[in-house]
Design brief:
The complex is a heterodimer of chains A (76) and B (394).
Chain A: H1 2-13, H2 17-20, H3 34-48, H4 65-75
Chain B: H1 7-25, H2 31-46, H3 50-77, H4 81-102, H5 116-131, H6 140-148, H7 161-168, H8 174-209, H9 215-246, H10 264-267, H11 273-294, H12 300-319, H13 323-345, H14 347-352, H15 356-377, H16 380-393
Helix pairs in contact in B: 3-4, 3-5, 4-5, 8-9, 9-15, 11-12, 12-13, 13-15
Classes of the chains: A mainly alpha (76), B mainly alpha (394).
Chain lengths: 76, 394
């Protein structure tokens, strides 16, 4: 499951660094804008059946690959 | 009395803040006292216009009934899209009435009270999050306090109900409270300096040198108006945020050095943040998700561009049903779409985006695009355009 999320992130962010550094800050490094974020939410819903509303968690709670993995895990 | 604008307000505020600080230091809940102070300020702000006070009361009752009935229906029927859309419309109705009737001058003053644009959005946020399953109950006191909270009632920042209620029901330790209140006081002082000193200075320059019908004067007007707008609004926001800290509420920031932005996308993360993030979370993201799910556009970039333009045009309309506000929104929508396309498509951008000269140039262009946007927002652009057209046509 972690691998799957990392694959999704790599595709959305267009950079494999998200796999190498799981604590990289996606917002600070300009790897994820609001458009990418919506894509991420859809991919999470399609792949894991986990629905996260756009206003549900703050961007700061979802700004690194590790945090995203944890949020998805906590809801599965 | 006009909040944050008159000497009287600050005297009242200073007096009414003292018990809050004492309660905070004694580690007592600020909720009931804070709510009382909010009622006092709402009354003082609106006491000269009983009609507005009445409409505000009616609005809150109407909106609250919508929310609790929608919570019940959501519980019973689940994610029913038709009911949801009806409730969304009903929740936006006061604002729609206000704006449409405003075109005719609204002689009966229907839904005419200060802050209606902000209040409507706060209520609509609750309806949307009920549908999302994030809000399952709504306590009337917390609701009313959230809606009427005096620092933010007239012009934001637009807080979110779940965040607000968390602060409201959290017990701060004395140290935490003192730190929060201290930062609050600093923000109030800084905000007052922004608004009373710097904004006033730019305003003076603008009215003295910016009113002539020539290019140089128009340029002076454009830059000084933009800077005036920032210091005036950011100053007000700082004071509002600072005073909410004293009542234990950590209202989110509204500005973060917007003129340092290196592109328009960054600008909207730094300018009037609570509004632009409201639009991002409740309009843009949802629109984009619908586009992606229905595969409305073959090309992702086309979808994003349409999303930006729709989102910003709605934001323009939210500011007012006036030609130049709508044009302002459309202008920013086009800029955002253009930026998105440039950043995704251009090899030139990808090659040079980390270079210092590129960043410098990008900053310079962004600053001037933004200033021109304010020129539109001020109404001066359409005024000049009209004049030019009459000259040409005659």
């Amino acid at each position: 499951m972690e691998e799957k999320i990392l694959d999704i992130l790599e595709e959305i962010c267009g950079d494999e660094v998200v796999k190498e550094d799981r604590d990289i800050n996606l917002l600070d490094e300009d790897l994820m804008d609001s458009l990418d974020y919506t894509e991420l939410l859809i991919a999470i819903e399609d792949n894991f059946d986990v629905v996260i509303a756009p206003s549900e968690v703050t961007r700061e709670e979802m700004d690194t690959p590790n945090k995203i993995i944890n949020v998805v895990k906590s809801r599965m | 009395m006009s909040l944050y604008d008159e000497f009287d307000f600050f005297v009242w505020f200073a007096v009414l803040a003292i018990p809050a600080v004492i309660l905070g230091c004694m580690e007592k809940k600020l909720k009931i006292y804070g709510f009382f102070v909010t009622l006092v300020f709402v009354y003082l702000a609106l006491k000269n216009s009983p009609a507005a006070l009445g409409w505000l009361g009616f609005f809150c009752v109407y909106d609250y009934l919508l929310i609790i009935s929608f919570i019940k229906l959501r519980e019973k029927l689940g994610r029913n899209k038709i009911i949801y859309k009806l409730y969304l419309l009903a929740s936006l109705m006061p604002l729609i009435c206000n704006k449409l009737l405003g075109l005719e001058g609204n002689p009966d003053k229907i839904f005419m009270f200060l802050g209606i644009s902000y209040l409507t959005f706060k209520g609509t946020q609750i309806i949307i999050e009920v549908f999302d399953g994030l809000i399952k109950k709504q306590n009337p006191l917390d609701y009313l306090y959230f809606m009427l909270f005096f620092p933010a009632i007239t012009s934001g920042p637009i807080d979110r109900s779940r965040r607000f209620e968390e602060d409201l029901n959290k017990q701060l330790s004395r140290e935490e409270y003192l730190e929060l209140a201290g930062t609050g006081i600093f923000k109030i002082v800084l905000g007052a300096f922004y608004k009373i000193v710097i904004a006033a200075l730019f305003y003076r320059v603008m009215t003295t040198f910016g009113k002539e019908p020539n290019i140089v004067s128009c340029m002076i007007y454009m830059y000084t108006y933009g800077l005036y707008l920032f210091f005036d609004f950011a100053g007000y926001s700082l004071m509002a945020i600072g005073s909410s800290y004293i009542f234990g509420i950590k209202t989110p920031d509204n500005f973060n050095k917007p003129f340092l932005s290196k592109d328009i996308k960054e600008f909207w993360d730094r300018w009037h943040i609570t509004l632009s993030h409201w639009f991002r979370d409740f309009i843009f993201s949802r629109l984009m998700m619908t586009f992606m799910r229905n595969k409305t556009f073959k090309n992702k970039l086309t979808g994003a561009s349409v999303g930006f333009i729709v989102n910003m045009t709605v934001m323009g309309i939210w500011h007012g049903l006036t030609g130049y506000y709508i044009l302002y929104g459309l202008y920013h929508g086009l800029l955002l779409a253009g930026t998105e396309i440039f950043q995704k498509k251009s090899k030139f951008y990808k090659k040079y985006k980390k270079e210092r000269w590129f960043i410098g140039l990008s900053w310079f262009l962004t600053f001037n695009f933004v200033m021109f946007g304010f020129f539109i927002f001020s109404g001066r652009f359409t005024e000049l355009f009209d004049k030019l057209m009459t000259i040409i046509l005659n």
